[in-house]
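All the exercises in this workshop are built on plain-text protein records. The record below serves as our worked example for the rest of this section.
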Amino acid sequence: MSPRTTGAQRPAASSPRAAGASQGPLVTPDGRYLIVRGRLWRRADPALPEEARRRLVSELMAARREVGRALRAGDAGALRAARRRVNEAKIALGERGPPWWSDGAPDENRRLVASTSYARWYDALCEEEGLAR
């Protein structure tokens, strides 16, 4: 576990992969981020009740479909509204906005993992598992 992990957080799975994903994205040891193509993406707040998380994910997916429809239709107003809904859902999930952890660790969302506090862990994991960096 990372030295930044606090006892108040849900422990990460023993595997560095996302729960239920055999070849899915890697998850940082503290469970805060997914790693996709070498970049950190903040995970949803694990303290969210399952029903609320499910509802918010449904809202996020609906808003993303609206973004696609607005893009195909060339409707700038609908596109702005749909993107606003996407952002609001991501904030409610904890993927954007203030970090959901309370130990004072900085938010490293959207940064390349190689330039973050997870770089050594990631390099060791890549070497151990033979993954491309």
